[in-house]
Amino acid sequence: MPFDAAGRQEKRARVAVAVSGGVDSLCALLLLRRAGYDVLALHGLFLPEQSASRPDGAADPLPGLEAACRTLDIPLHTVDLRAVFQREVIDPFARAYAEGRTPNPCALCNRAVKFGALLDAALALGADKLATGHYARLLPPCRRDADALPVLAAARDSVKDQSYFLSLVPAARLQRALFPLADQDKAQSVALVAGAGLRVPLPRESQDICFVPDDEVAYRPFLAAQWRAQGMEPPGAGPVLLAERPEDGAGETREIGRHQGLWRYTEGQRKGLGIAHSEPLYVLRKDRVANALIVGPRSLLGMTACVTGAANILVPPEDWPEQVSARLRHRQRAAPARARLDARDRLHITLAAPQFPSAPGQVAALYDADGRVLAGGVVERLE
Description:
single chain, alpha/beta, Rossmann fold, SH3 type barrels, 6-stranded antiparallel β-barrel, 5-stranded parallel sheet, 26% strand, globular
């Protein structure tokens, strides 16, 4: 079972395994223990009130993790990263919504917390590597020179692949990573953990946003509390403008209603608009300057290009193929595209055919034909 980019098992390495309490991280722990690594388990306290319960309603996983680690005879360490998680994930998440963007907190967490502060904690404990339960791979680099580093790549299981969420992690940090689940699927992970007699503290599949209540009624008060804590007051109600012809998407429109705050909507959304019309309407874009929501029929829905902020470059641009694949949402299939970097390292991505729209604040990740992640960036605008 290959754990490094060259397919070698680094059995002498000391590896910290990030354990959340879910089946995937427990499986990573089990596999590395069986493979002969010197293993320690590392549990990060991320959530603001991780004690008796979590926002998603699950119990505190720590007692169950302690039991699993006793069974495997592995030391368990905890590190309090709640202040870091608040600063690097929750605060930017709340600010993005207040500004009318649709953030991707998992990508920010992987960059700043899991492969940031948690990796630092692992190194301080004497670990050489940090392993996680992500479904992703590290492949040999495109070039064969001595300084080239292994490259993040998509997992073999395309359904569970999480390379998209890891595309903002700098290459230097990824060199300390191990992904034991790279070549297996979820069913195999579940079976291995069950076969070892380990009880999974958090048996539910993790939700996309772990720190927000899994309930729309509670979601809005959560954001409101975060905004108050940051002294922010997001824009309120504004016009809903209908675009009926392609040119209207950026030009003339007519008002057909009022929205209750741009933060409540995202590009491509159909349900929950609260507008009666002769045909279904979708969010085409959000005009943040005018605080206006632009809607229109599905025939006008689609994007052909986007621009990101400064990109996280994982493969030198001179090694990129002429045509790449761009993934613009987690559950969206990567689409053929061309990409270039400007002088500020922003990605300019042009799609070969119109795609269901992404949204400012989401991640754009570029791949080559072998699944290597060439670069990732946060979308600033759609075109």
